[in-house]
Amino acid sequence: xxxxxxxxxxxxxxxxxxxxxxxxxHPSRRNDLRSPEAIRFDPPIPQRQTLDAFGNVCTRIVAPPxxxxxxxxxxxxxxxxxxxxxPQASQAAVDALPDEVMTYLxxxxxxxxxxxxxxxxxxxxQTPEGWARVxxxxxxxxxxxxxxxxxxxxxxxxxxxxxxxxxxxRDFAHLAIALCRxxxxxxxxxxxxxxxxxxxxxxxxxxxxxxxxxxxxxRWYTFxxxxxxxxxxxxxxxxGRDATDCAISTSxxxxxxxxxxxxxxxxxxxxxxxLMRAA
Length: 279
Description:
It contains four helices and 14 strands. It folds into two domains: 2-78 and 248-267, Immunoglobulin-like (Sandwich), CATH 2.60.40.2250; 94-240, C8orf32 fold (Roll), CATH 3.10.620.30. Helix content is 15%, strand content 32%. By secondary structure, it is an alpha+beta fold. A hairpin with a 5-residue loop joins strand 4 and strand 5 (57-63). It is globular, with a radius of gyration of 19 Å.
């Protein structure tokens, strides 16, 4: 299947402002692109791309004073298959984990495991290790937190979400990640596109989505504590320890968000180029 996706975002600044953007499709999906991926800036400005410490494509700019619009529109191929389910996937002993995975066992800015360890073992210490334990954590978080788009809070940690019991997709991911790490299961944060493909459309504004991956059976598997069901058409943009590492935009100075639009739609593969329409 083909998915048409992109964004139209605008900021206003009062002075030249350095910004770091994670708005590109993750390199692991680059071979799936069916149209050039280009980030457009209005007004046009220089941009420089590099890979960050987690392998994400980072675009660095200096936004001029006034309004700057950042946009992209692209086609990407997808298998059309839902997230993999592997109930037999086992949990490795900590001393057997690859070195590069160990960072995803540690506390991080939004995944404050030190405040949740006792709770995690109380809740999940008797569950079977491996896939079943992760699914038990996902089921718990899915029930525990109430989704409310109007309650988004950029400072809310995993423990805050546990106490407040409300949040958006990133809060579901942070709490599930923290609980997994408390149980010695490596877990990492993901952000990207997730449209209403194969499921009934929801009335919430389209946004970038957050989910997480766990390391079981020698590979990474996708889990989503907000939706708690395998989904079709995930397009990852960034991975990291938590939302700090995967922020879509980081400004080093005042930058006020004045427009934010995201689109993700399945398209018919038979439509002529430039005339692709939503399925």
